[in-house]
Amino acid sequence: MHFRTENRPWALITGASSGFGEEFARQYASQGCSLVLVARRKDRLESLASSLRSKHQVEVIVEGVDLSDLESVRQLHQRVRERGITIDVLINNAGYGVHGGFQEAGLNDALGMVQLDIASLTAVTHLFAADMLARRSGKILLVSSLLAHVAVESFAVYAAAKAYVLRFGEALHREMKRDGITVTTLCPGLSDTGFAEAAQIQVSPLLKLLMMKPQPVVKSGIRALNAGRISVVPGLPNKFMALFIWASPRWLHQAVFAKVMSPKTKSNLQGGKAS
Description:
The protein has helices at 19-30, 42-56, 70-82, 107-135, 156-177, 195-198, 205-210, 214-227, 236-247, 250-261; strands at residues 10-14, 34-39, 60-64, 87-92, 96-98, 138-143, 181-186, 231-232, 271-273. The protein is α/β, with parallel strands linked by helices and 275 residues long.
């Protein structure tokens, strides 16, 4: 099946097989964008790609890549360039989260988060931003978390990794703006993406009230990126929590988040990986 793509922008989305990544693919396809979908689970990507091609008549390329392998990231970038594809929008969404005490988790889990959430995100951004800078145009959305704003018990490495993403994105926003590149960081709160189940988080009634569906989160991120904003926290409850973090002493907001985010039992430590 062939589609006309001459004047259609290309969006590359990492972690596109589920959660926010899948929803970014759906919303950009509905806008007529051509897509490069990247994730480990190629079978799920193929199914999504087939659906999007049929529904929206857009070109979709599937790349089954383990982004935690930096050489695979370089090869992905090279393949995209060899195809003659110009990436106009980069959605850097792939991430890995483990819930539980720092010493309860294995060292591989902790380093896995550092590798995917920090090193790989940095590598993907560096490679594709270089192409954007060469032509002085492009948009980059980095997916962080509301937890980037606060150190949270049982999410020590994850929160720290997402804090890196937020500060990294804020710095790049100013640095690249003068060269025609928009960099925006999206900081969602707990959302209905399957992460809570994968990480064995017992969702309290309060968390259920705060939990957002992927659609409005992604819509908020795209809107902020198009508006050239430095960052965005989607949803009024999450905005209130961000304000509370900013306005309150650390001991207070850390205690509140520890109470809200900690399950009753921590015996089963598992991770949720965006892929």
